[in-house]
Design goal:
Number of domains: 4
CATH architecture of the largest domain: 3-Layer(aba) Sandwich
EC number: 1.2.4.4
Strand content: 5-15%
Helix content: 40-55%
Protein name: 3-methyl-2-oxobutanoate dehydrogenase (2-methylpropanoyl-transferring)
Number of strands: 22
CATH topology of the largest domain: Rossmann fold
Radius of gyration: 30 Å
GO molecular function: branched-chain 2-oxo acid dehydrogenase activity
Largest sheet: 7 strands, mixed
Bound molecules: thiamine diphosphate, magnesium ion
Distance between the termini: 91 Å
Organism: Mucilaginibacter gracilis
Function: E1 component of the 2-oxoglutarate dehydrogenase (OGDH) complex which catalyzes the decarboxylation of 2-oxoglutarate, the first step in the conversion of 2-oxoglutarate to succinyl-CoA and CO(2).
């Protein structure tokens, strides 16, 4: 309560106690409502109204305490137990909680995920429908949850690191929507068992190194589903074993706290103290909350009576945090038992109403659609030769218990199939309605893999490289990149770059050489060897308005960041229905080196796992620079794989090296020809180009197409068009058989109808199944070589002209 001069001392203390009582009672009410939501939620799953439920019962009181310290501008990056925190901060309402449980695909009803995520996967919206940022300093912010336990820790690091940059880099003051002097704390929550994950330790260490305002709460209920702490954590105590991270004297490090999950007063004091240090001093804190319980067990998928002893269950009943809080409130004369009974009754009714409202919202919509569908099918039955079948379909539909949209749509599709050879007004009406509903359902379930707003890199205007100047000397490819990065760093102060060896030496191939000296280590900096959290660091920064380029030193190491890229970054737009964005650029290099862990080109793996991230495969550094120029002007995430063997090849510097753009999804035809279409990308293109010259000498004219980006792939269908002329298709790539090449074939043959123009079997020329051994001979026998390409094309031509191209062997 603010001090008020009009009160005398006794009035102040009286009012203070009332105020205090009011706060505690409100907290208890929020906690109790949350518990009711868990109980009702579980029941809704068990009675079949919802598919799956996981709830925050037993974790309420600590979250009430945490919520008191959470301010506008702050961020949460947590896991599925945090409903109480979400209710207490107002970031989620009870009705929204139930709407998500029922998978209501309306954004208005479930603003976190539009019914796309399981329950208790929370998010606030950070961008509007045009992709423009809200003022995040005026909101409480919750990064969209993911189900993989520990998977949110790398992004948490980035959210915290943003505060550091906003506080320390005064040049960022113009970015008013994201920070007030870096005062924002990134709150992380994680279960005790999930601290066993590598990502937890990686993020934990990195936050200590970076000294960022990251507050990690560990909700310790001594179990991870059925597995007790003795299998999870050394000494069964995470804060005990992390003691070495405690800051001492002038060292960096953490402040570590331990507090019991049912001790309301202890929790409030601990959070107040911990978060003040974190916020003011940018010191990361760990709050280990012990003695938590799980009154309803882990989730709706099983019962904890199976694996917890009677003693443990009895202990949990007694140490239930709400039971303990209630007891303390009565003992401290904060409320009487009768008052609390009444509060609980009211809360039960309120939660029940919220649940019913949420169910009715969805049910009434679907029932309306069902009624309309039934009417249209009935109308069709009146005039159709298939009336019996249609009436049977309608009967099944009307007998559906708790019908879903799929029941309605399935009935329509069956009816349309049954009457495929009929043509009448009733069928047309049904078909039209089906098309309208299909468009709505497409929007509900299949959109926003990318945020796809006017800021998308797909709409960045194409600007050609300008070579019209005196400087026509040929320079190293790495120097082209260097000039591009420098121009962009000057143009946009929100761009930062980091990674292993990126700062002091300007990356192992010197694309960033000299830039730390020019722009300082808040803009361009080294990191530890920690690919997953390099990507997470970038993701968190990008979610808070900065433009990071996170470098993964070699493509082969991308594997170490794959869970963050795939689970978190790639799915962010889809799982929030474009409510959050993270325009992160991941820079890496690959292809055509030698050795099992330095030669990789696992594009099939990457393409399949990373839908939701643009995949750029430039064949030289000018092309790469143009892609960076495009991506840094757009707002969607992208991976750029540079050619490891291209940094010292000579290229001509465009005058507009920081401005020209390479469009995403547009091919470049490198060589025109009529006999065969060869599609390849990256380093392999140089070999293909050389092979094409040898083929020309024997009368074969190959057309070579560089798609430039694999996602999106050839939006204009240029490859398919080329086949109209050549009728033959060869895809060359360095991935395993059926990897990246299968992806390319699917696009050309299926999406572009390429099969229609082929007069011989489409072929792929790929690397072998195994990884390439070290050494040039190993490379020759593992990856597509010049001779492989020449012979493959020669043989394909031989299929059509056997006399002209007889078998070589
Ligand atoms: C990466 C990953 N591995 C396994 C799982 C399956 N899983 C879901 S919750 C869970 C237990 C987590 O326990 P803990 O971290 O202690 O959190 P609690 O549920 O006890 O609050 C497991 C193994 C998962 N979701 N993600
Ligand atoms: Mg646990």
């Amino acid at each position: 309560m603010p001090a008020n001069e009009n009160y005398n001392q006794s009035e102040i203390s009286q009012l203070s106690f009332d105020d205090f009582k009011h706060i505690v009672i409100t907290d208890y009410r929020v906690g109790f409502e949350s518990r009711q939501a868990s109980i009702l939620g579980r029941r809704e799953v068990l009675t079949g109204k919802a598919k799956f439920g996981i709830f925050g019962d037993g974790k309420e009181v600590a979250q009430l305490a945490m919520a008191k310290t959470f301010r506008k501008g702050d961020w949460r990056s947590g896991y599925y137990r945090d409903q109480t925190f979400m209710f207490a901060t107002g970031m989620c309402s009870l009705k929204e909680f139930f709407s998500q449980l029922y998978a209501n695909p309306s954004l208005e009803k479930d603003p976190a995920s539009a019914g796309r995520q399981m329950n208790c996967h929370f998010a606030t919206r950070t961008i509007d429908e045009n992709g423009d940022w809200y003022d995040l300093t005026e909101m409480m912010n919750c990064a969209s949850d993911i189900s993989t336990t520990g998977g949110h820790m790398p992004r948490l690091l980035g959210l915290a690191y943003a505060s550091k940059l906003y506080r320390e880099n005064k040049e960022l003051a113009y970015l008013k929507n994201f920070s007030v002097n870096g005062n924002e704390v990134a709150f992380g929550t994680i279960g005790n068992a999930s601290t066993s994950e590598g990502l937890f330790f990686e993020a934990f260490n990195a936050a200590g190194v970076l000294a960022v305002p990251m507050a990690i709460s560990v909700w310790d209920d001594a179990y991870g589903i059925s597995v007790p702490a003795k299998y999870q954590t050394t000494k069964e105590d995470i804060s005990e074993i992390l003691k070495g991270f405690q800051r001492e004297g002038n060292t960096n490090g953490y402040e570590i706290f331990k507090v019991r999950g049912w001790d309301y007063v202890g929790l409030c004091e601990t959070y107040e103290k911990a978060i003040a240090i974190c916020r003011e001093q940018h010191v990361p804190v760990l709050i280990h909350v012990t003695e938590m319980t799980q009154p309803q067990g882990h989730s709706t998928s099983g019962s904890h009576e199976r694996y917890k002893s009677k003693e443990r269950l009895a202990w949990e009943d007694e140490h239930d945090c709400l039971v303990q809080m209630r007891k303390w409130m009565v003992e401290s004369a904060i409320a009487t038992a009768e008052e609390l009974d009444e509060l609980e009754n009211t809360a039960k009714k309120y939660v029940r109403n919220c649940q019913r409202d949420a169910w009715n919202d969805l049910e009434s919509e679907i029932k309306g659609e069902l009624t309309h569908a039934t009417l249209l099918i009935n109308n069709l039955a009146l005039v159709s030769a298939q009336s019996e079948r249609l009436l049977a379909i309608n009967k099944t539909l009307s007998e559906c218990f708790d019908p879903a949209r799929r029941d309605v749509i399935a009935a329509i599709r069956k009816s349309l199939l049954a009457t495929a050879n009929e043509s009448n007004e009733a069928r047309t009406e049904l078909l039209n309605w089906f098309n309208t509903e299909s468009a709505k359902n497409n929007d509900r379930f299949n959109t926003k893999l990318f945020t796809d707003t006017p800021h998308s890199p797909l709409y960045v205007p194409t600007v050609a490289p300008d070579y019209n100047w005196d400087n026509d000397s040929m320079i190293d490819g790495r120097e082209i990149l260097n000039a591009c990065f420098e121009a962009n760093f000057i143009r946009d102060k929100s761009i930062v770059a980091f990674g292993e060896d990126v700062g002091a030496i300007g990356d192992v191939n010197q694309g960033f050489a000299g830039l730390q000296n020019k722009f300082g280590d808040l803009r361009i900096v080294d990191t530890g060897i920690r690919e997953a959290t390099i990507v997470g660091q970038g993701m968190g920064l990008a979610m808070r308005g900065l433009r990071p380029i996170a470098e993964v030193q070699y493509l082969d190491y991308l594997m170490y960041a794959m869970n963050v890229l795939s689970d978190d970054l790639a799915s962010l737009s889809y799982r929030t229905k474009a409510g959050q964005k993270a325009p992160l650029i991941i820079r890496t290099r690959g292809h055509r080196l030698e050795g099992i862990w330095h030669s990789g080109s696992p594009l099939g793996f990457i393409l399949n796992a990373l839908r939701g991230i643009h995949i750029c495969v430039p064949r030289n550094m000018t092309q790469a620079a143009g892609m960076y120029n495009t991506l840094l002007r757009g707002d969607e995430p992208a991976l750029v794989i540079e050619c490891l063997n291209g940094y010292r090849l000579k290229e001509k510097l465009p005058q507009n090296v920081g401005e020209f753009t390479v469009p995403l999804g547009r091919v470049e035809i490198l060589r025109e020809g009529n006999d065969i279409t060869i599609v390849s990308y990256g380093s392999t293109l140089r070999i293909v180009q050389e092979a094409a010259e040898e083929l020309k000498a024997i009368g074969i004219n190959a057309e070579i197409i560089d798609p430039q980006t694999l996602y999106p792939f050839d939006l204009d269908h240029a490859c398919g068009r080329s086949l109209q002329k050549t009728n033959k298709l060869l895809v060359v790539d360095e991935d395993v058989p059926g990897g990246g090449s299968a992806y390319i074939l699917q696009h050309i043959l299926e999406k572009q109808n390429g099969y229609f123009n082929l007069d011989s079997q489409p072929r792929t020329l790929t690397a072998k199944q195994h990884r390439p051994p070290y050494g040039s001979d190993g490379d020759y026998y593992s990856k597509p070589s010049h001779e492989d390409i020449v012979e493959m094309v020669y043989n394909m031509m031989g299929e059509t002209y056997p006399d002209k191209y007889p078998p070589i062997y």
